[in-house]
Amino acid sequence: MVLFCLVASHRSVDLNTVARLSTGALGVAEDAVAGGALTGAITLSTCNRLEFYGEVPGEDVRDVHRAQQAVLDRIAQQSGLDERFVLETMDAYEGEGVPRHLFTVVSGLESAVVGEREITGQVRRALNQARQSGTASSHLVQLFEAAARTAREVGTRTTLGERGRSIVSVALDLADDITPGRWPERHALVFGTGAYAGATMAALRDRGCADIEVYSGSGRAQQFTDQRGGSPVAEAGLPAALRRADVVIGCSGGSAPMPAAAFPVGPRTVVDLALARDFDPAVADLPDVELITLESVRVAAPEETLESVSAAREIVDQAARRFETERSARGMDEAIVALRKHTMAVLDAELEKVRTHHGCTGAEEQIEMAMRRMVRSLLHTPTVRARQLAAEGRADEYITGLQALYGLEVGSPQTATDAQEPPAERSPSDTPRPRAAG
User: Fold this and answer.
1) Active-site positions?
2) Read out DSSP for 369-398?
3) What is the predicted pLDDT for the residue at 362?
4) Residue 333 has pLDDT above 90, yes or no
5) How far apart are the C-alpha atoms of 100 and 371, rounded to whole Å?
6) Rg (CA), the chain
7) How far is 5 from 53, CA to CA, in rounded Å?
8) Is pLDDT at 182 greater than 50 in this prediction?
């Protein structure tokens, strides 16, 4: 089993490209798992990144590269982008680089606002969605759960993000600087009913803004406001809501951006936090209108202290090493189980032959107990050696040897409760590759 991830983020490409790639990734995880190309897949899509995590059966690096290429081809096809461009745009991580990257991301170290906590919830939702769609393999679940633990550890052991900065908070800070009046007197109109809209509603209330209306092209504004407060806006009432609004905040990423001509005359601040823009950039050219975008937030985001970032990165490095050690141990447990089951199956088959040909001799129980003691002795050294190699980080060598010698499929779904020495005797009964991230 090999894990890989393909990544496009604000650090390497513009946000419009990230949005198109995210659109192209829709349904790819489900199709890849259903078709057998991958044993698991999780897609993480946020306002400034697309990350595709996949699990390839076996250890053959050629299979990993073929799987990556198939995913990239599908994303390119569905996004309408050139295949070569997508290949060169998305960074690729494999093996040990995968947990290190995900742990860095979930800790907020790769965010536009370093240390922001919204990414933790986004990673959790990505895992939940994969579980619901049936694409979350056990190894990927372990990876994402370890990522959540790492984020909590960074949050409790460092000051990273303790000021509560986020993309939403920085955007509202910018809006506060350029919008007349104070938040308690301002009228806000929020587009969208997703997680970002919820975070925006909470941030607005924290600042004292009580007059908040919510519009959703999907028609879910009523349900959203019933749960989170605010007033729903129907399609027919949208022009009037726009006229009332001092601050308009887009969090939906609708199918098409609202044209500048749809905005009424008058001063207002427009905040577009949607990855696929909610508003046409030409809004910035309207008289007395100020436009704040994700790019504006990224540029304005304050930097965390070097000490906090350094401490967080050390925690991430330790967590990544710990995950790899534990993963090797789990893989070794599966290898020991497979070897034990194979050996005991051979023994049981031979004992059955003895019973068939010689019948009950009276000494049958003593013979079987002796043979099982012999097998136990034979398996003792390979079991001890397995533990030693796992501790040295050389589990792959052992597993590869078992597969080569016995043709065993290590890593098939089964429990590891038998991953100890056998029990005591019992009575009878060549394609181009995506850009490798450095």
Assistant:
1) 47
2) HHHHHHHHHHHHHHHHHHHHHHHTT-HHHH
3) 61
4) no
5) 47
6) 28
7) 4
8) yes
Residues at the binding site for substrate are 46-49, 111, 116-118, 122
Annotated binding site for NADP(+): 192-197
Residues 270, 268: Cα–Cα separation, whole Å: 6
Give pTM, 2 decimals: 0.69
pLDDT in tens, 372-420: 888 888 877 877 777 777 666 676 677 777 777 777 766 543 333 343 4
3-state secondary structure of 57: coil
CB 272 within 8 A of CB 296: no
Number of Cβ atoms within 10 Å of the Cβ of 8: 23
- Per-residue pLDDT reduced to its tens digit, 233-283: 999 999 999 999 999 999 987 668 999 999 999 999 999 998 778 999 999
Tokens of 14: 């513009």
What Cα–Cα distance (Å) separates residue 183 from each residue in 34, 175, 201, 228, 272?
Answer: 50, 10, 13, 18, 18
Locus of tokens 């690729």: 92
For residue 279, give the DSSP letter: B
Q: Is 45 helix (H, G, I), strand (E, B) or coil?
A: strand
Q: Are 106 and 51 in contact (CB under 8 A)?
A: no
Report the chain's terminal Cα–Cα distance, integer Å: 22
Quote the CA–CA distance of 148 and 106 in Å, as a whole number. 7
> Domains (ranges, CATH) in the chain?
2-163 (3.30.460.30), 167-300 (3.40.50.720), 328-406 (no CATH)
Chain centroid to CA 118: 13
Residues tagged in the binding site annotation: 46-49, 111, 116-118, 122, 192-197
Q: Looking up tokens 């190309």, which residue turns up?
A: 37
